[in-house]
Amino acid sequence: MTRKKTYVADIDRTIYDQRNPFSFSFKTDKGLTEEIVREISRQKSEPAWMLEFRLKSLEVYHELDLPPWGPDLTELDVENIVTYVKPNVERKLSWDDIPTDIKQTFDLLGIPKAEHEFLAGVGAQYDSEVVYHSIRDSVAAQGVVYLDMETALHEYEDLVREHFMRLVPPSDHKFAALHGAVWSGGSFVYVPAGVHVEIPLQSYFRSNAPGAGQFEHTLIIAEPGSYLHFIEGCSAPRYSVNNLHAGCVELFVREGSTLRYSTIENWSRNMFNLNTKRALVDKDGAIEWISGSFGSKVSMLYPMSILRGERARAEFIGVSFAGAGQTLDTGAKVVHAAPYTTSNINSKSISKGGGKAIYRGLVKITERAKHAKSTVDCESLILDNDSVSDTIPIIQVDTDEVDLGHEAKIGRISEEAIYYLMSRGIDEEEAKAMIVRGFVEPISKELPLEYAVEMNRLVQLELEGTIG
What we know:
The protein contains eleven helices and 28 strands. It has helices at residues 34-43, 48-63, 100-108, 111-118, 137-140, 149-155, 157-163, 174-182, 415-423, 428-444, 449-459, and strands spanning 7-8, 26-27, 85-86, 121-126, 129-135, 145-148, 187-191, 201-206, 213-214, 217-222, 227-235, 243-245, 248-253, 258-266, 271-273, 276-281, 286-293, 298-301, 304-307, 313-322, 327-330, 333-336, 342-351, 356-365, 372-382, 388-397, 402-412, 463-464. Strands 6, 7, 9, 10, 12, 13, 15, 16, 18, 19, 21, 22, 24 and 26 form a 14-stranded mixed β-sheet that branches. Strands 5-4-8-11-14-17-20-23-25-27 form a ten-stranded mixed β-sheet. It has a two-stranded antiparallel sheet with strand order 1-28. Helix 10 (428-444) packs across helix 11 (449-459). Residues 1-17, 19-23 and 461-468 have low confidence and may be disordered.
């Protein structure tokens, strides 16, 4: 009996590939020069110290080489990337005031509807600038500050200067230095001590310009005893030229506070996603990362948690989906730098059509971190004979008094499981889809209902073929 190869269709990107005509009020030339960096700073009327920071970052960028490990980045030529594109709109406080074409893009993505129904605040970035930002009056009355980064730089300059790129210095790697030189947009959140923001905040980053880069900066400070759930969404239409995303996220989780940071990334297949995310967690604090990666040509993304205080905790739950022409090199990093700290990493990946899904992680337990506990669990699902899945964990332990576990599993969709479901009256395509949905269920259940639906829509697979 002839066996047909199982075929899994690509995710339907109709909504996300909606593109607008490329228009702008200002853009820089391609490439990266001192003149371009100065012009970006001039466009934003920045204080002198920020321009100085940008120029020093530019120097570091030219000194550093590309990472000698990881996916091939030779196709990415920053000299052909436009690093700043200002859309034809100033920041608005009402969706009604945003130009129709831009507003329709966010309408299709469901952002205004989500804000109205279940978000405490929304920021929307289009190319290099935030075009809309709002926060509910009841949340602002608690002293919560939620602004775009440019506004925060002027209104809370001392606070921004104290924290900006302290966790991710430009010297960290070449694309951190690039970010420091040309960053634009992003969100600033300050949660006062003891304040619990019961409804999530969300920022959505939409890239529309072909051959451009997006370099938003997110800075969140959660003061002692506070709670916040922040949601980040990203998407872009597909072009025939390479785009670059090199954002930066810095999270300061103070004593006894909890910050949940959820991300659903659905970049197009021409995007190099080289994002950097890092959290510093103090005594009895907790950082919870929920991550879904469903796009890009190449991704290199490893959210890092530095557990600085005693009993600090880090949780990472992530899923990636690599299809044809994609290399998703993702994972998580945790540094245990204090006693009785705990971390749990649960990473899942799906690969098809020759896609490469790679888990790359680091758990470092320092000499000070006695009685630390860490668990790493990696699972990979391969949907055909052409795809690749690798697990590259690094574990460094500098003290004996630890509890540490690591497990990795790689497998295919079980033909026996499909046959069993079919014997119960479920057709083959739905049986396969059920298995995949079950595989990612631990991630989707951690998201608010509306975002769980969004993620399930992204991983809804159309399958053809028979088995047996």
